[in-house]
């Protein structure tokens, strides 16, 4: 079974919306506007590209990343990697042609089936709504969280507010940086 890893830039109060400056959010760009950049705090992002063998995205994140990431040197390792987009509305005609193989999945059952295939880890970037649904369905195996020392208030959250049984996590890697960022890697305990 493949490992499904959720990776996120997250504020201390749980907001994941528009960390890179995506339009439409009051505090857009909070990852680079409000916290000093320290390269060592982002080491995990390069490691993710080396370790992942596929990327899973929700429709909104796919539509935000696909026009930009294929030509960005920082994300070169993702270009050839198979991508999967969970959407009930996207069509093949909506997919970009310069970002490698992309498959549209229509349901969480399709994601569960993907996890049963041969291969290495699958990384989930952005995709707040998808992350919530995956977590609620028990499909996420690991979280890579870069926690920013910011309280953003309103905004999309990584975790849902669904009334559910406790989901236990095990801290397997952590580090704090001089700029206040914290890296927290959690495995989901089954």
From TrEMBL:
Q: Which superkingdom is the protein from?
A: Bacteria
Extent of the signal sequence:
none
Bacterial bifunctional deaminase-reductase C-terminal domain: which residues? 2-182
Pfam family, any one: RibD_C
User: PANTHER family from the entry?
Assistant: 2,5-DIAMINO-6-RIBOSYLAMINO-4(3H)-PYRIMIDINONE 5'-PHOSPHATE REDUCTASE, DIHYDROFOLATE REDUCTASE FAMILY PROTEIN (AFU_ORTHOLOGUE AFUA_8G06820)
Q: What is this protein called?
A: Dihydrofolate reductase family protein
Please report the organism this UniProt entry assigns to the protein.
Answer: Streptomyces gilvifuscus
């Amino acid at each position: 079974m493949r490992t499904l890893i959720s990776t996120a830039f997250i504020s201390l109060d749980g907001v994941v919306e528009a960390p890179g400056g995506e339009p439409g959010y009051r505090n857009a760009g909070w990852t680079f506007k409000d916290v000093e950049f320290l390269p060592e705090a982002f080491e995990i992002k390069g490691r993710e590209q080396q370790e992942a063998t596929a990327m899973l995205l929700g429709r909104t994140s796919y539509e935000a990343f696909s026009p930009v990431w294929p030509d960005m040197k920082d994300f070169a390792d993702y270009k050839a990697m198979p991508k999967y987009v969970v959407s009930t509305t996207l069509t093949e005609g909506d997919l970009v042609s310069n970002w490698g193989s992309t498959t549209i999945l229509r349901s969480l059952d399709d994601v569960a089936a993907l996890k049963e295939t041969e291969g290495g880890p699958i990384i989930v970037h952005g995709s707040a709504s998808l992350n919530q649904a995956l977590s609620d369905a028990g499909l996420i195996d690991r979280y890579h969280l870069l926690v920013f020392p910011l309280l953003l208030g309103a905004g999309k959250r990584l975790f849902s507010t669904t009334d559910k049984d406790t989901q236990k996590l095990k801290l397997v890697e952590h580090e704090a940086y001089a700029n206040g960022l914290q890296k927290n890697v959690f495995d989901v305990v089954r």
